[in-house]
């Protein structure tokens, strides 16, 4: 478990990770995060080669963010320095092992650029729905989706209140090969009429058949996870998290590990099990970036 490994063949190249790099501001400290950065961190740890495309401000937080990204072994050449906007921040309030987010708007990550050569030469794409919150980013995302047609495209349904749109979610689902969602996000999809009102196994199967996905996984916290592909549906048990941690970043670690193992050639059940183990380790730690 949790070993580095090479990804096979076509996935050894640069895997594009598009979206927000932000500081998670806790009551007593701050830590670098944002779902795409968290994903890139764990995807690299699993042996992948992520290329993160994001933006930070021309400020002290931006400089510190670039330093931390480099320290994590991830290149910063495609992280734009915005001369006008501040580096992104998310204020996090913890209650037990649950957390609430307040996303500070109109910061650098809402204005990301992507060089055309990166898009054309990438071996696949990861993005979260939050990255499409601005009109500017939507345009960049759409160009990336076009450039990555025929390649793996993973979308994390990172749905935050008032920061998603039904039509855009439906559009994304039709462009995607791999989707990851949690229990709350599946409920949102049901409320929007994008899937039917049935159990989680059925929800995963419907996402596969209705939108033409190759893979789907739904995390269910202490009740494990459900995954589906075009042939099978599986449910795996959760691994217990140790007391004293928080759940920040655990879902991103799950997604990165799940995807990396699928690319490696693991079965759906094997990939989900490995992802659940890593997610539990992260949930046992403080902050999004666990060292293990």
UniProtKB/TrEMBL annotation:
<keyword id="KW-0067">ATP-binding</keyword>
<dbReference type="InterPro" id="IPR029056">
    <property type="entry name" value="Ribokinase-like"/>
</dbReference>
<dbReference type="InterPro" id="IPR011611">
    <property type="entry name" value="PfkB_dom"/>
</dbReference>
<dbReference type="Pfam" id="PF00294">
    <property type="entry name" value="PfkB"/>
</dbReference>
<dbReference type="GO" id="GO:0016301">
    <property type="term" value="F:kinase activity"/>
</dbReference>
<keyword id="KW-0418">Kinase</keyword>
<comment type="similarity">
    <text>Belongs to the carbohydrate kinase PfkB family.</text>
</comment>
<dbReference type="InterPro" id="IPR050306">
    <property type="entry name" value="PfkB_Carbo_kinase"/>
</dbReference>
<keyword id="KW-0808">Transferase</keyword>
<protein>
    <recommendedName>
        <fullName>Carbohydrate kinase PfkB domain-containing protein</fullName>
    </recommendedName>
</protein>
<keyword id="KW-0547">Nucleotide-binding</keyword>
<dbReference type="GO" id="GO:0005524">
    <property type="term" value="F:ATP binding"/>
</dbReference>
<feature type="domain" description="Carbohydrate kinase PfkB">
    <location>
        <begin position="18"/>
        <end position="288"/>
    </location>
</feature>
